[in-house]
Amino acid sequence: MMKKIYISLLFLSGFSGQVYSAEIDQATANRFISNFYQAIHKHDMTTVSKMMDDKVTIKIVLAETTPQQTFTLTKVDYLQQWKAIWRFASDEKYELKNVKVNTLNGLAVVSLQGKQNRVFFGKKTVQENDLNIMLNNDQNRLKIVAINSNTKLG
Q1: Which of 25, 48, 75, 128 is the most buried (most CB within 10 A)?
Q2: Residue of 98, 115, 120, 102 lying closest to 152 (CA atoms)
Q3: CATH 3.40.50.300 matches 26-153
């Protein structure tokens, strides 16, 4: 499974026009992901945007739909989704667990489980995500170049 993810992520990175300058260590990748989710929690669109490559690819698979639905978003689409959530949701809580970092050819793939709880229009909602986030180190600046999410809505 991880080999398949690596191959697809490496394929995607070939189109990003990025050249890595240094290996990404586990502590740096963990800190970056933590900062990314802190920016989301603080509704800091500027920071979230700066942490993502302009050519990032976001793939979301809704796991419990029949037939299974897959969406591919651009950076602009992804940021717009967060703007809508921030505007209409309340009581947001984010939980990250089982964070693992693997490196390959200067890229880091951060695998994690994320849970988002919020209230939308008076109704409690839960979203669980199995995520693979690919990081690239371009000119000593980490950027997210791909996000793959297997999502369960509740």
Answers
A1: 48
A2: 115
A3: no
Domain residue extents for the chain = 26-153
As a whole number, mean pLDDT of residues 120-137 equals 94
pLDDT at 14 over 80: no
- Tokens, residue 152: 């369960």
CA dihedral 39, 41, 45, 51 (to 10 degrees): 30
Which residues, 6 or more positions from 70, have their beta carbon under 8 angstroms from its beta carbon? 59, 60, 61, 62
- More confident call, 65 vs 86: 86
22 confidence band (pLDDT: 50, 70, 90)? low
